[in-house]
């Protein structure tokens, strides 16, 4: 009997993996359902490894491409096109090869009797838990077309914010790269040209200024050990990334990011905005509050806020309101907590949360603009300072020599 590798989620929200023996994939899914397990991925043992290798070699699907796919699927379903045919159309029209392969697999799973949400969940690197949960809620509440359209709108909003951040930081990044390159060129190429002059000054007993000695030392170090220094920097970055991949490292990094002057406020507001937008979108699509909190906590990008949200799940399940445990964490701004508290009483939490996210995003845009305006002159001053240091280090011995001769 064939073996099927599965990843499933229990009713308590915990994921588990294992192997089941079944005559077909549909039978394997039924066996998991009998055990009160929601299947996220069910594949034949031989297919699983091959699919992972094939998919791991390809890049991620862009959010904009995914948003267009969800919009097209929503339009096709709204116009009466059956789900299987709609998936076939999307597969043929997909521009991204990775998305075409994924949609083809999703269609095959749906044709075998798998639910659309389960088929999407089998590709976690393409479809987020948010998208899967909203599709599941749309299937259960008979508003799948609306759920798909809202997923597309959410993805476009997130991509728009990401592009604004990238666009705002592009110029400072170019300044940093160009300034570093110019400085290295001056230190490793131009400064050694004056080495004979410096040596003659030392032999004559005139001596060299401290700034020139420092400059020569740095130049010799970069020329002789530049490769080793670069390798050490790369190793340090790789070590830091591995450390940040651990739970303790991510928590330390998230705590440190919130303390950065100016940028820390932006990181904090961005995490709160993502939480509010995802939570509001899930609630608007009929996802239960506790489930929505667990999913939205993972979207914050900050472990401190994620732990605060997850701790509120236990409190809410015991009958408390949402605003009380979130306010106790101290991570949600008081004005936001006041709006959440009022929205809970008025039963308009889903609408208010999305409005809060929109307002915070607007504030982030203003903060980014101010930050970029401050970073640009700071980068110019830093680059100018490094170049000035090199020029002074080279020319100061000349001035000292002229003064001694005069």
What is the mean predicted local confidence, pLDDT?
81
The percent range for helix content is over 70%
As a whole number of angstroms, the C-alpha radius of gyration is 29 Å
| Strand residues, percent | 5-15%
What form results from the Cα inertia axes?
elongated
Largest sheet geometry: 3 strands, antiparallel
CATH C-level of the largest domain: Mainly Alpha
- The strand order across the widest sheet is 2-1-3
Q: Please tell me the total number of domains.
A: 3
CATH fold type of the largest domain: Receptor-associated Protein
Q: What is the count of helical runs?
A: 17
CATH architecture of the largest domain: Up-down Bundle
Pick out the low-confidence regions: 52-58
Q: How many individual β-strands?
A: 3
CATH superfamily of the largest domain: Type II secretion system (T2SS), domain F
How do the helices and strands follow one another from N- to C-terminus?
EEHEHHHHHHHHHHHHHHHH
Structural classification: mainly alpha
Distance N terminus to C terminus? 99 Å
Quick structural overview:
The protein is mostly helical.
Can you walk through the features of this model?
The chain has 406 residues and is mainly alpha-helical. It has three domains: 1-57, Ubiquitin-like (UB roll) (Roll), CATH 3.10.20; 62-127, no CATH class; 151-406, Type II secretion system (T2SS), domain F (Receptor-associated Protein, Up-down Bundle), CATH 1.20.81. Helices cover 76% and strands 6% of the residues. The protein is built from 17 helices and three strands. The chain has helices spanning 25-34, 45-56, 63-78, 83-93, 97-111, 116-121, 129-141, 144-190, 195-203, 210-245, 247-257, 263-284, 289-297, 303-317, 323-329, 334-346, 349-405; strands spanning 3-10, 15-21, 37-44. Strands 2-1-3 form a three-stranded antiparallel beta sheet. A hairpin with a 4-residue loop joins strand 1 (3-10) and strand 2 (15-21). Helix 12 packs antiparallel against helix 17 and helix 15 runs antiparallel to helix 16 (334-346). The longest helix has 57 residues, at 349-405. The protein is elongated. It starts with a strand and ends with a helix. Residues 52-58 have low confidence and may be disordered.
């Amino acid at each position: 009997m064939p073996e099927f590798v599965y990843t499933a989620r229990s009713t308590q929200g915990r994921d588990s993996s294992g192997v089941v023996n079944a005559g077909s994939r549909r039978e394997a899914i039924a066996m998991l359902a009998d055990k009160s397990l929601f299947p996220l991925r069910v594949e034949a043992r031989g297919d699983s490894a091959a699919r992972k290798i094939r998919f791991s070699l390809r890049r991620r699907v862009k959010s904009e491409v995914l948003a267009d796919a969800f919009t097209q699927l929503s339009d096709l379903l709204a116009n009466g096109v059956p789900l299987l045919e709609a998936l076939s159309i999307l597969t043929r029209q997909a521009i991204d090869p990775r998305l075409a392969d994924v949609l083809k697999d999703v269609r095959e799973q749906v044709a075998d009797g798998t639910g659309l949400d389960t088929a999407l969940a089998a590709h976690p690197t393409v479809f987020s838990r948010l998208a899967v949960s909203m599709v599941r809620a749309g299937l259960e509440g008979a508003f799948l077309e609306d759920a798909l359209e809202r997923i597309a709108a959410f993805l476009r909003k997130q991509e728009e914010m990401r592009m604004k951040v990238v666009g705002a930081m592009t110029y400072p990044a170019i300044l940093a790269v160009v300034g570093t390159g110019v400085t290295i060129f001056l230190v490793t190429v131009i400064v050694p040209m004056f080495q004979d002059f410096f040596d003659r000054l030392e032999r004559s007993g005139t001596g060299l200024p401290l700034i020139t000695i420092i400059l020569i030392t740095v130049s010799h170090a970069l020329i002789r050990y530049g490769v080793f220094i670069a390798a050490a920097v790369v190793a340090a970055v790789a070590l830091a990334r591995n450390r940040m991949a651990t739970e303790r490292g991510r928590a330390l990094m998230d705590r440190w990011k919130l303390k950065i002057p100016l940028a820390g406020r932006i990181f904090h507001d961005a995490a709160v905005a993502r939480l509010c937008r995802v939570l509001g979108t899930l609630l608007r699509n009929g996802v239960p509050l506790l489930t929505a909190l667990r999913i939205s906590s993972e979207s914050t990008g900050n472990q401190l806020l994620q732990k605060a949200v997850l701790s509120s799940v236990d409190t809410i399940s015991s009958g408390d309101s949402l605003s009380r445990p979130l306010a106790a964490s101290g991570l949600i701004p008081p004005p936001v907590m006041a709006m959440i508290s009022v929205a809970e009483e008025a039963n308009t939490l889903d609408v208010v949360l999305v409005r809060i996210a929109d307002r915070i995003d607007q504030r982030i845009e203003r903060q980014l603009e101010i930050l970029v305006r401050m970073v640009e002159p700071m980068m110019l001053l830093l680059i100018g300072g490094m170049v000035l240091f090199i020029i002074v280090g080279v020319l100061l011995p000349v001035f000292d020599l002229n003064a001694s001769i005069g």
